[in-house]
TrEMBL record:
Cofactor(s) needed: Zn(2+)
Name of the protein: Archaemetzincin-2
Top-level taxon of origin: Eukaryota
Similarity comment: Belongs to the peptidase M54 family.
Single Gene Ontology BP annotation: proteolysis
Organism lineage string: Eukaryota, Metazoa, Chordata, Craniata, Vertebrata
Alphabetized GO MF terms: metal ion binding; metallopeptidase activity
Function field: Probable zinc metalloprotease.
Keywords (A to Z) from UniProt: Hydrolase, Metal-binding, Metalloprotease, Protease, Zinc
Length: 201
């Protein structure tokens, strides 16, 4: 197994910004919030632990991506930011999320709580669950796993039509495998930065 462990200096280079807007926002945080932010610079932090790679096929090694520091993320012209009229994250469950209604409701409760904590300040709302058939998406049976898979791009089109006026974004969640195109085996999720839609399985 390989472990990716960044040094404190690497983390500071990636995370510290000289942008006056961000510096001002940091200075407005209370002592506890600043202490939480500073945890990012501790390589042995419980919040930002090292990444363990279990095999050469792990996503981070088999799908290398160009690094992006926080300054690049913050300055990205395609990054959506909430506005007073668009401050709600909508969650759309597609198909059954568990063997029983109680399990499905528990999953949604965990996801809602996570979104409220991680995207602090935004409202999290649930859309009425729908069966897969309502999405009218393409599907296939994976020849290796023999699992049913639904086309991720079709789900994005469905979510775009369902997106409420006050939505910052709408997220579809399903326990069914996704595939983005015929040549791919599967994908964990897909999103549209311009439409504010995404889905995960």
């Amino acid at each position: 197994m390989q472990i990716i462990r960044h040094s404190e200096q690497t983390l500071k280079t990636a995370l510290i910004s000289k942008n006056p807007v961000l510096v001002s926002q940091y200075e407005k945080l209370n002592a506890g919030e600043q202490r939480l932010m500073n945890e990012a610079f501790q390589p042995a932090s419980d919040l930002f632990g090292p990444i363990t790679l279990h095999s050469p096929s792990d996503w981070i090694t088999s799908h290398p991506e160009a690094p992006q520091d926080f300054e690049q993320f913050f300055s990205d012209p395609y990054r959506k930011t909430p506005s007073p009229n668009k401050r709600s994250i909508y969650i759309q469950s597609i198909g059954s999320l568990g063997n029983t209604r109680i399990i499905s409701e528990e999953y949604i409760k965990w996801l809602t709580g996570y979104c409220k904590a991680y995207f602090y300040g935004l409202r999290v709302k649930l859309l009425e669950p729908v069966p897969v058939s309502v999405t009218r998406c393409s599907f296939r049976v994976n020849e290796n796993t023999h699992n049913l898979q639904i086309h991720a791009g079709d789900i994005l089109k469905f979510l775009k039509k369902k997106k409420p006026e006050d939505a910052f974004c709408v997220v579809g969640i399903t326990m069914i495998d996704l595939y983005p195109r015929d040549s791919w085996n599967f994908v964990f999720g897909q999103a549209s930065l311009t439409d504010g839609t995404g889905e995960v399985d």
